[in-house]
Amino acid sequence: MRTVLFACLLFVAASFQSAFGEADGPDFFRVVNVAADDVLNIRAAPDADAERIGAIPPDADGVRNLGCQGGLSFAEWEKATPAEREAATHRRWCRVAWDGMEGFVAARFLAEGAAPTTTAMPATGVPATDVPAAPEDGGPRNWEVTGVAQALNLREEPSTTARIIARYALGTILSNLGCRSVQGRAWCDVQEFGGGPRGFVAADYLKPATGPDGAVATGEDESSLRAGQGDFDATGRIPCARYPGQPMGQCDFGVARSGGGDATVVVTRPDGTRRALFFARGRFVSADTSQADGYPAVGSEKQSDLNRISVGDERYEIPDAVIFGG
Fold it and tell me: Which residues on neighbouring strands pair with residue 112, listed in sequence order?
């Protein structure tokens, strides 16, 4: 009789813990009660109608617990009818972290799980507790988002509890602005290539980005410094025009390359004045405009392997071969 009673008490305790969790809850969950051909949805808010932002496999373990909410207190649970207890389990939601995503899942599909048995290995090939190098220390100039099912959170601070300010899709290219270790995890200061908010992402989900030329650009981009010193990798002539309606002529140029499509092209016009044009990952990004020339509007368009660039009324045509070599 005592054995039966003890077993019943264990069942009640287990049911209560499944519905409500402990005061702080387990560090990790595993997914339960989800069909083998289904997934557990991650939502942006603790509501079944909230936006679906990710999914967890039905056999997943090691889902990090970031805190749960909703349900009944212990006193309320003792007084509740079976129907009320069942309804309570549908009101409880847990905020979790999985595969680079953070959001809310229904608590009735979670049970206490185990911590991952191996140290997470980011695509950089080093444990997550090691800090990837910044470009000034020989690290990659750009990262590529990898290993996420849906998106990678960009956070205001290097913490899983910090505010999310953007989400990056798989394959997004980010600028490497330096990394650091915070509470045993490597975080990287990044900004999307081409512009956007700046913040922090977990280094676990980054790998060195390969440039359009198939190379990973590492170290600082010194092409502009070399170009300013006249240290060019190649020289030649390109089509150019300086004034509206002027037919295209020929201008001398010198290019300093830094790998991965990063380069600085200095064009010398017929009157001896110069214009510097800057490229990153094979894309034109800016020119050396100044207050003296009125900060003219800058633009570009790509036609096959030709970069058509405008700086105010000035026009330049620069083939990809100038940027990448060959």
Answer: 29
Domain limits, CATH 2.30.30.40, in the chain: 2-112, 135-208
Q: Contact, 165 vs 197, CB < 8 A?
A: yes
Task: State how far the Cα of 66 lies from the Cα of 49, in Å rounded to an integer.
Answer: 21
Using the structure block, give the residue that is written with the tokens 């402990």: 22
275 beta partners:
267
**Domain 135-208 has what CATH class?**
mainly beta
In this structure, the chain runs to a length of 326
* Residues 202/203/207/208 CA torsion (nearest 10 deg): 120
Rg (CA), the chain: 28
CATH-assigned architecture of domain 2-112: Roll (2.30)
pLDDT tens, position by position, 137-182:
999 999 999 988 778 999 999 988 889 999 999 999 999 999 999 8
pTM of the predicted protein model: 0.63
Report CA torsion sign: 295, 221, 180, 210: positive
